[in-house]
Each structure stands twice: as C-alpha cells, then as structure tokens.
Design a protein that fits this description.
The complex is a heterodimer.
Chain A (H helix, E strand, L loop, with lengths): L1 H30 L25 E2 L32 E4 L3 E3 L2 E10 L2 E12 L2 H21 L11 H17 L4
Antiparallel strand pairs in A: 1-5, 2-4, 3-4, 4-5
Chain B lengths: L8 H24 L3 H5 L3 H24 L4 H7 L1 H11 L1 H22 L3 H11 L3 H17 L2 H4 L4 H25 L7 H33 L1 E10 L2 E7 L13 E6 L9 E10 L2 E7 L3 H6 L7 E8 L11 E7 L3 H10 L10 E6 L8 H10 L3 E6 L9 H7 L6 E8 H13 L7 E6 L2
Parallel strand pairs in B: 7-8, 7-10, 8-9, 10-11
Antiparallel strand pairs in B: 1-2, 1-6, 2-5, 3-4, 3-6, 4-5
The chains are: A alpha+beta, B alpha/beta.
Chain lengths: 181, 445
C-alpha cells in the first residue's frame, strides 16, 4: 500500500532529525553547563504538600555522627587553622532559610582560606516523615558533593530535586556572606 | 466556486523532519537531566528510565494530537484517512511508554525511600504536587487505551467511543501539571520548561483553532439548512442543503465534511460524509448510506433543520493527479466521493478521459447511474458497472486489465470499504501503476 512506501522513504528522514535533535540538546547543554542548581530559580513553594499544619518535625540532620563523607572535613568550626593548612582562620556562616516543596532548611558552611571545609544543616523542618526520611538520606550525599566540588553548583540528587535546590540556594547565600569566591 | 489550494508535499516532509528533531530533543532532555551521582544513588536507574519513558511517551502523545488537529495544509497534503491511520499506528507507543513510566518511577522512588511500591503510590498522592491529577490522567489513558483495542472498540457505537476518546485531551492537560512541577528535565531547567510549555500551548491552540474555531466560523458563515431529503436506493439517502456564500467554500470533488445536523437526538454527533456533488450555490449535497443510528436518522430529517459543518477534508482530489488520464474505481457507498471527483476532473480534449468502474453487489445498489453516465459522456470517458456478489463476479487483475488496458499510464483513484480499497491497490501495484499515481479513500464503517 501507499502508506508503507511513504514510511520507508520518510523513516530515515525522521531518524536523522531525531539524531540531530538529540545532538542539539546535549550539545547545547554541555556548552552552557555551568549554571547548575545554584543558578536556577526557586521552586514554587506552597505547591502541594508544603509546610502544612501537620506536626512539624525538626531534625538536626548531619553535623556529627553518620556522615559517610571522606576525610579532610575537619570537624572544628571555630578552632585553629589545622584544617587546610591555610593561613586564614576558618569562618562560618548560616545561609538563608529556604522553603521548598516539603519543608524548610538552612545550610551552615565553614570556609578556611579558599576551601569549604564543613557543611551542615542546623535547621530543617519537614512536613511529613517521608520527606524527613528522604532528607536524612539526601543531605549526606549533597554534603559530599559540596565538599568534593567545593562549590554550591552541585548536581543534586535524583528524586529530591526540591531539597537539592533549596540546599544549594541556602548554601550559596551562606557562601555569599563569607564572600567565598 | 473558489478552488482549493493544491496540496503541498513539502509540508509533509518538513513536518516529518520537525517531528524527528522533536523526538531527539525530548530524549536529549531526559538524558541531560541525570548526572552520574544521581544514577548510582538508590533507585537512580529506575527513576532515570521512568523519566526517559515519560518524556518519549508524552512527546509521542503530542505528535498524535497534532496528527488529528486538522491543520488544513496537512489535511490537504496527506489526507485525513492516512493521518488517522498514522494516529492509530502510533497509539500503542505513548500508552505503553507512559505505563512504563508509572511503574518505573514508582519503583525508583520506592527504592530511594526504602519502602514498598504501594506505599510509594500513597506518598505520591499525599505529598507531591499535582500527582492526584496525574494519576487520574493515567486512569483515563488506560480506559481509553483498553477501549481502543480492536475487539472492544467494535462493540461500542462509534459516537460513544468518540466521546470517550475526547477525554484524552483532559488527561493530557491533567498530566501536564505534574510534568512541569516534578519532571527532572524541567525542574531547574527553565529553558526546557519554557519550551515544553510553549509547544503544548501551541498544540492546544492548533486543536482549538482548527477543530473548534474554524468549524464554528464556517458553520456561522454558510448557515446551512436542509432543503431536501431524497432516497437514491435502498438504504441510500441524499441530503441537499442550502447556505450562504457557498461559492466561497473551497471544496474539491472527492472530499468529505463532518456534518452535524441540529435535530433532536443527533445534534451532539458529527459524522464524516462525502460531498456527492460539487456545491452549486446556494446548494450542496451529501449522500449517506444507512449503516448506523446516525445515518439511519438522517433519512427522517425535516427540511429546515440547521446544519453545522467541519472541513472539507481529504486528499482524494484532482490535485494529486500525476498523469493526464485517470481511472476511478468505487465500491458501495464509495461512489459518492467518486461522483464528485469525476465532476471535478478536467474534461475536454487533453482532459482526464476517465474510465469509471462502479462495483455493486445488486443492480438496485447502483446509485447515481444517470448522473455518472452524463458526467462520463461530458468528460469523454467510459463507464463500467460491475454488478454481482463477490463470489459471482471477482474483481481481479484480469478484470481491471481488460477494463483499463492503459492503466499504467493513468492515475488510479479507489474509494470504498477498507478491504476493497486494499485489494484494488494491490492489483494496481501488480499491473505496474506507480505508487504515487494510486490514490485512495477508505471508509471504515
């Protein structure tokens, strides 16, 4: 039938188009890679779950014990300059409280010289236990991303986009206070 | 009469290229949304695949909507029966991809949360934005998908199925909300999000303009009314309508329109019927065969009944002709489109000299005999009426070759039930008619 002959003629055309489109998007993305999460606008807060009147759980996540991150994150925040061997004394700042879809958080960062030596989340409030459990899992991952990338331009964690964005934004505001980079 | 603009084949090629680029770009958006750290995290792979299937499936759904959005240039160039066939062929893909998305994303999030899939579904509903709408949308899609399975669809009345089918627009709109709010390819990617929104709004605009706006405008402009209902043969009825400005309705012979007769009980249905004669201002005629409730009710229409129209549609016209000469073959009610097409073909010396073959199982079923005879004479062609049941008179290669010895030098127009059209097209191929010279319009009843 006629239809079939047309399909054969046009399928390669569509395929070439698809490859061109794919290459275009991926190429454009890698060319403009930098902005990452820190540059993106805040997620519309108040949509969906939000910080309803449900019991607000306050969880001091991270900070001490369960961090799987690797060495060199000198625990001391005020103490001497043993961390990076740099001359400047470590300075700390707490970023703005960021509302995200399922809660609110603020990030505290410590900078010694031109290195981020410590990140923690002193304030986190979540609307439900689910969001709490996600945050518990995600914050250590975000922390290790920050420590290895030495920047707020982290990739974030799949499935926790809002949390990642809020984390990155609060971190950026903390870094701004310290005039970091 | 205003002649219709000819079809533009490049429209189709361009559209195919754009559709291909769009598919590639959509898959690209799904790829760039993921980073290695996200992939290796718990549930990362499933979440990634869930997003990929969602993007590809939703994009193909968009293509399906565009295929039936009745863009006039595309309708003229491709023909609606073929567009609908592409729509139908494509349909399993978006449905199964979106189904995979639902499963994979649920599993992925459950893995990330170390919970069960059912628990995860509850969590989606309770704590994610726009997920209730998305789940309703998926439910609608599943229902429509199941009802579209051939065996089930055959049991439904056409208009019932069609009405349920329209709910797909609602489903796509509901699903759109969660795509924008939660889609990893859009959250944090403002440019991608903006493009996605614009593309969907533009598609909605196309549908509104060409499936709603233009038909309303046209119906208002021409203000058609039934003036005569005439019985042509057992179960075959012609309806003559009159209207204003019909000389400015650009319609070609062989096209059809969607007709909505504003009479009790049938006003809510629009059905496709061929124009059986070129409009002669202020009159236009359609001819229908009684096969269902709607076409049956038309025989009882009263003069004065108001009529709304959509169209004309179809690429079964003289504009697609390749050669000078033509052969026209119709079976059953396909003779209506053939009759109008014949009227529209160029006559005189150097005209189409059409060989017209009309197939019917009983002599009583032959309609338009005298009209066809007159037109054929006028166009300097021949008329053959092949009467008899399929078993008695087979319409095969030998028959077509003896009736139209120079078939390879002619355009072949075939119109009738799907099975008939397919068989004649096959015969023509074997007789050496070039694919681009074969034109057909199949009626699926």
């Amino acid at each position: 039938m006629k239809i079939r002959s047309i399909k054969i003629k046009r399928a390669p055309v569509a395929l070439v188009g698809a490859i061109a489109g794919l290459a275009g998007v991926v190429g454009f993305h890698s060319a403009t890679r930098a902005p990452g999460l820190a540059g993106s606008p805040a997620p519309a807060s108040g949509s969906g779950g939000g910080l309803g009147s449900k019991g607000t759980v306050s969880t001091p996540a991270s900070g001490g014990g369960t961090n799987p991150s690797q060495g060199q994150a000198g625990g001391s925040q005020a103490g001497g300059s043993q961390a990076g061997g740099s001359q400047a004394a470590p300075q700390s700042a707490i970023g703005a409280k960021e509302q995200y879809g399922y809660g609110l958080l603020a990030v505290k960062v410590t900078v010694a010289g031109n290195r981020i030596t410590q990140v923690s989340v002193p304030t986190i409030q979540v609307a439900d236990s689910y969001s709490g459990s996600i945050a518990q899992q995600v914050i250590p991952m975000l922390r290790s991303q920050v420590l290895s990338l030495q920047s707020a331009r982290i990739n974030g964690v799949s499935g926790a986009t809002y949390t990642s964005e809020a984390y990155a934004m609060s971190l950026q505001s903390a870094l701004n206070k310290l005039h970091f980079k | 009469m205003v002649t219709q603009k000819p079809p533009r084949p490049w429209v189709v090629d361009t559209a195919v290229v754009i559709a291909g680029i769009g598919l590639g770009a959509t898959i690209g958006l799904a790829l760039i949304a993921e980073t290695r750290s996200e992939l290796v995290a718990a549930g990362g792979i499933a979440i990634f695949l869930g997003n990929l299937t969602a993007m590809a499936g939703t994009y193909l759904a968009l293509v399906m909507v565009v295929l039936v959005s009745r863009i006039p240039a595309v309708e003229r160039s491709v023909g609606q029966d073929r567009l609908v066939r592409w729509h139908r062929r494509l349909s399993p893909w978006p449905l199964s991809l979106i189904g995979a998305h639902v499963v994979l994303t649920t599993i992925g999030y459950a893995q990330a949360d170390k919970s069960g899939a059912l628990h995860q579904l509850g969590t989606f509903l309770s704590s994610y934005p726009d997920m209730a709408e998305a789940i309703v949308a998926f439910g609608i899609m599943v229902v429509i998908g199941v009802l579209s399975i051939r065996a089930l669809r055959a049991r439904l009345r056409r208009e019932v199925w069609w009405t349920i089918h329209l709910w797909m627009y609602l489903a796509l709109a509901l699903a759109f909300l969660h795509e924008i709010a939660l889609g990893p390819s859009f959250v944090g990617h403002p440019l991608a999000r903006a493009v996605w929104i614009v593309v969907w709004l533009a598609t909605a605009g196309l549908v509104l303009a060409y499936r709603v706006g233009l038909p309303l405008l046209r119906s208002y402009r021409h203000r058609l009314k039934v003036v005569e209902v005439r019985r042509e043969a057992p179960g075959v009825t012609s309806i003559v309508c009159s209207g204003r400005d019909l000389d400015r309705l650009a319609v070609s012979g062989g096209q059809f329109m969607l007709w909505r007769f504003l009479a009790r009980g049938i006003w809510w249905q629009a059905h496709p019927y061929s124009i059986s004669a070129l409009p002669r201002s202020p009159y236009i005629r359609l001819t229908v065969k009684e096969v269902g409730d709607h076409s049956g009710a038309l025989a009882k229409l009263h003069p004065g009944t108001r009529v709304m129209v959509e169209g004309p549609y179809g690429a079964f016209t003289r504009h697609v002709q390749h050669h000078k000469l033509a052969a026209l073959v119709a079976a059953g009610i396909g003779v209506t489109a053939l009759r109008a097409l014949l009227e529209d073909l160029p006559g005189g010396p150097g005209g189409a000299h059409p060989v017209v073959i009309v197939r019917a199982s009983r002599p009583a079923d032959l309609v338009f005999h005298s009209e066809l005879a007159t037109l054929v004479k006028h166009k300097r062609g021949e008329l053959h009426e092949v009467v008899g049941s399929r078993d008695e008179v087979s319409f095969d290669e030998a028959a077509l070759r003896s009736l139209v010895p120079d078939i390879a030098k002619r355009d072949l127009y075939v119109c009738g039930p799907e099975g008939f059209v397919e068989s004649v097209v096959g015969i023509a191929r074997r007789l050496g008619v070039a694919p681009e010279a074969v034109h057909h319009e199949a009626f699926s009843l």
